[in-house]
């Protein structure tokens, strides 16, 4: 079972913070977006473009199920993976940490990162909509919520370690 599972909207820092946290804990890091890309043999942008969002979500649900079953380190999910009801059920009993981010910060951060197909057009209004829709789901799943707006990724990782009393391996 993963030590920690990170959830939250795009730009909350799941991938960046997750990798740092894993490094500090001395455990492996895994990101379900990377797993999906590996299974599909192409980047997420191409999966959305060629096959559509529904196909991406099916690959994502399978990747999350597999990673929850076999990964022992830090696991970062794609921001939309919690839209799937079966995935939410699987997450019960896991140490789920919600990285919270405000709209302004999220817009800034995704603007710096590589393209996310859902946010190519009007990133601000897309992000606002998906954050509003998903907030109750993120909140309902989390055993710990970390507001990240005023923290560097390393500080977020340290806060998770401290709050969950995680020891390095
Ligand atoms: N706490 C933070 N403070 C500032 N920038 C951050 C923070 N967390 C992540 N970032 C930056 O925001 C962008 C998106 O981060 P990423 O880890 O890919 O988020 P997610 O996986 O949640 O979508 C990256 O450029 C990353 O360096
Ligand atoms: O929120 C979403 O629906 C998505 C978030 C992305 O991952 P990040 O949350 O790591 O950006 C990626 O899975 C895909 O572009 C869809
Ligand atoms: Mg990510």
TrEMBL record:
EC id: 2.7.1.71
Localization per record: Cytoplasm
Cofactor note: Binds 1 Mg(2+) ion per subunit.
InterPro entries: P-loop_NTPase, Shikimate/glucono_kinase, Shikimate_kinase/TSH1, Shikimate_kinase_CS
The entry's keywords: Amino-acid biosynthesis, Aromatic amino acid biosynthesis, ATP-binding, Cytoplasm, Kinase, Magnesium, Metal-binding, Nucleotide-binding, Transferase
Keyword Cytoplasm on entry: yes
Pathway annotation from the record: Metabolic intermediate biosynthesis; chorismate biosynthesis; chorismate from D-erythrose 4-phosphate and phosphoenolpyruvate: step 5/7
Reaction(s) catalysed by this chain's protein: shikimate + ATP = 3-phosphoshikimate + ADP + H(+)
Subunit structure and binding partners: Monomer.
Name of the molecule in the record: Shikimate kinase
Organism: Herbidospora solisilvae
Classification of source organism: Bacteria, Bacillati, Actinomycetota, Actinomycetes, Streptosporangiales
Gene this chain is encoded by: aroK
């Amino acid at each position: 079972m993963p030590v920690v599972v990170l959830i939250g909207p795009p730009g909350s820092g799941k991938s960046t913070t997750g990798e740092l946290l894993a490094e500090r804990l001395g455990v492996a890091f895994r990101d379900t977006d990377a797993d999906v890309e590996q299974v599909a043999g192409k980047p997420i942008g191409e999966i959305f473009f060629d096959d559509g969002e529904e196909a991406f979500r099916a690959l994502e649900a399978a990747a999350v199920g597999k990673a929850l079953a076999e990964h022992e380190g830090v696991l970062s999910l794609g921001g939309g993976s919690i839209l799937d009801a079966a995935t939410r059920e699987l997450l019960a009993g896991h140490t789920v940490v919600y990285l919270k981010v405000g709209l302004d910060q999220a817009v800034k951060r995704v603007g710096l990162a590589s393209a996310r197909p859902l946010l190519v057009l009007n990133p601000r209004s897309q992000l606002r909509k998906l954050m509003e829709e998903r907030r109750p789901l993120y909140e309902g799943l989390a055993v710990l919520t970390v507001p990240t707006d005023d923290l560097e990724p390393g500080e977020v990782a340290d806060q998770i370690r401290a709050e969950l009393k995680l020891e390095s391996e």
